[in-house]
Each structure stands twice: as structure tokens, then as C-alpha cells.
Amino acid sequence: MKLQFRPVSIKLKRPLSTSRGPLAERAGFEVHLAHEGVEGRGEAYPLQAFGTESLADAESVLRTVEVTPVASVDEVAGQLSSLTATPAARFAVESALFEWLARRRGVPVAVLLGEARARVPVNALIDGADAEALVENARKAVDAGFATLKLKVAARSVSLDAQRLHSVRVAVGPRVALRIDANGGWTEGVARSALRGLESLGIEVCEQPVAPHDVEGLRRVTELVPVPVAADEALGDPLHRARVLTVDPRPAAKVLVLKPAVLGGLMPSLELARKASSLGLGCYVTTTMDGPIARAAAAHLAAVLPPSSFAHGLSTPELFEGLAPDAFTAVHGAVTVPSVPGWGV
User: Fold this and answer.
1) Which CATH number belongs to the domain containing residue 176 in this structure?
2) Which of 106, 126, 150 is the last residue of a domain?
3) Which of the residues 2, 11, 254, 259 is marked catalytic?
């Protein structure tokens, strides 16, 4: 079974402002393997600033990794034990093996992972150069059927973020969930002040308000603010992840954000979701702004997670240049996992 890969890149129509700087392009690799007339595919889009390996390290692994035909999900995991330091590359290889196995069996990948739901609710990620553009995009998303809107914060001042969020809340009304993502851009003190000040806007959840390494600061923010807090980038480092999952005596977060490219694939993400459920924590799946194959894989994961009230962060193709609508393009605020062998894309 020979694994091949090729470089790929996708550009955003407009750079996305984050607390770690603007995100304008994603570069990575499409992975392909074939054996006995059956093919499997995956994608590695490393994002080192968000917890993965570098692009060069991912390429190095993909050049040297060896895989053999698999007969079960457990055999897939067994072949990847040496790739823990390169989660994006591991995700890509795991994805290719899973699709190969699913196509060989004639089933969707989700069926390999567990009991799957066909329909997965997703959020819309909205942005805008100013409040007027932001409000316009928010209204368009709601008109398209999205019940959850996600906005990046912490790239601007707290007061400006608050004004933008207030404008959106007024425009879309109280029934639409507003989710915010600080990408670790606030200090603990600023996070406490900001999230207390935003209480009246009914924020659904704030992702990673403080730096990923500051797990105890995250724990204190979770305890002291009225907005539910989610751990995201903090899950990228195994040591920080273990501390997040330690109730000491209070949880470090109320929600976990599962990024397969950061966690090393679908199986590590699914294991973390089960652990979260046992601790009474919520979870949902997002991507690292990946290509269509990786996004499809994340949707298959979302389809087998324990039922949740949270929408998943899987509706991103409309943000990129040249990505045509596919089977996982959101319709009325949800994506449907195709009932065809493999990924369905």
C-alpha cells in the first residue's frame, strides 16, 4: 500500500482577523493511497500557531511513513502510534486509511466510528471590516438558516469587540446563538472583565479566552464569569489537555472544541469527546480552516458524537476562493453526511 501526497493551498476571499494575526491562506498536503483497486484520501493542513506541527515537519513525516492494509478501526490506530508529535500529518494518514477501509466495506466512514446521525447542525463564521459589514453578513447567515453565529474577538480592543457584538445582537435578535472565539488573545484579567461585560448579550460560549498554556487561568475564568468557557488551543498540547480534563476541584472549561488536525485525527477526538461526556462537559467539532476532505472527515466525526445542543464549526468553504459547493455545504444551517462509501466528497 503506497502513500502519496501533493502540496495544496487555498486562499481566503478576505483575510480573517484573529488575535494571532490575519489568516489569509492555508497550505498543506492532500494524501492518497490505493490498494487492490480501492482508494483512500486525507488532508494535512498544519497550523503551528494553533497547536500542530510545522508544514515542513508534516511533509517530512508524509515522506517516510509506511502503511499497510487494515481490516479494522483498531488496526488503523495501531499503525499511527509513532505520529503523535505531528497531529496534522497523523490526521491525514488516518483519514486515508479510514476511507480506504470504508470503501472496501461499502459504507460511510461514520459507520466505522459508531452510530451516526445524518444531519449535523453547524455555525456560520462571520466577519466584516466594520460594524455595518459585520451586521450585513450576520443577517445573510440568519436568512440562510443558521441558528448559531461565531465571531472572532481579541484582535481589536474589548470596547470595539463589544460594540460589534452589540450591533449583531440587535440585528439578529435574541434567539440566534452568538459564539465568540478569542484564540487565547486575552489575559486572565481582561477575559474576566470582557466576559462579565458581555453577559447581557447572551453569549452562548467563549472559545479559549486566555493563552493555551494558562490552564489555571482558564479554570479561574470558567468559575468566575457568567459566559460558558470552551477549551480549544489548550487541548493541542497533551500536558495541557490532561490538566484541562482534571477537575481540581472545578473544571477548567465547560466545553471542549475538538479539532481533528490538532488532536491527531478522528479517533483521538472521539476518545476525548467520550471523556468529556463522562465529566459532564459539552463538546463540538471545528476545523482548522481546512480543505474539503478534512472538513468532510470532521463532519463524519460530528455525526457520531453524543447528542449536543452545540452547532459544529464546519461551514467554511464559502470563505475561500475557488472552493465550489459540495455535499458538505451547509443548507438551512446544517450539513448532511452522505450515505455513500467513504467521505462522500
Assistant:
1) 3.20.20.120
2) 106
3) 259
Q: Are 123 and 157 members of one domain?
A: yes
Whole-model pTM: value is 0.95
Residue 192 exposure: Cα atoms within 13 Å on the Cβ side: 9
Domain co-membership, 196 together with 245: yes
In a domain, 344, yes or no: no
Are residue 138 and residue 23 in the same domain, yes or no?
no
pLDDT number for residue 149: 98
Contact (CB, 8 A) for 164 and 151? yes
- Which grid coordinates belong to 80? 499511527
| 345 in any annotated domain | no
Instruction: Kindly state the DSSP code that residue 178 receives in the 8-state scheme.
Output: E
112 in helix, strand or coil? helix
The residue annotated as part of the active site, out of 11, 152, 254, 275, is: 152
Shared-domain flag, residues 86 and 116:
no
Task: Report whether 35 contacts 1 (CB < 8 A).
Answer: yes
The pLDDT value given to residue 1: 82
Is residue 196 included in any domain, yes or no? yes
Concatenated DSSP letters for 19-42? TT--EEEEEEEEEEEEETTEEEEE
* Distance between CA atoms of residues 178 and 142, nearest Å: 11
Q: Is 2 annotated as catalytic? A: no
Question: Which residues span the domain enclosing 292?
Answer: 112-336
| 343 in a structural domain | no
What are the beta bridge partners of residue 142? none
- Does residue 69 have a cis peptide bond before it, meaning omega lies within 30 degrees of 0? no
Q: How many domains does the chain have?
A: 2
Q: Is 152 a catalytic residue?
A: yes
- Residue 23 and residue 58: Cα distance in Å, rounded? 20
**23-69 per-position pLDDT tens digit:** 889 999 999 999 999 999 999 999 988 889 999 999 999 999 999 99
Q: Alpha-carbon distance 99 to 86, whole Å?
A: 20
Main-chain phi, psi angles of 28, to 5 degrees: -170, -150
How much is the pLDDT for 306? Answer: 83
CATH code of the domain in which 33 resides? 3.30.390.10
Helix (H) or strand (E) segment spanning residue 5: strand 2-16
What phi and psi, each to the nearest 5 degrees, are found at residue 64?
Answer: -115, -15
Same-domain check for residues 82 and 121: no
- Amino acid identity, position 95: S
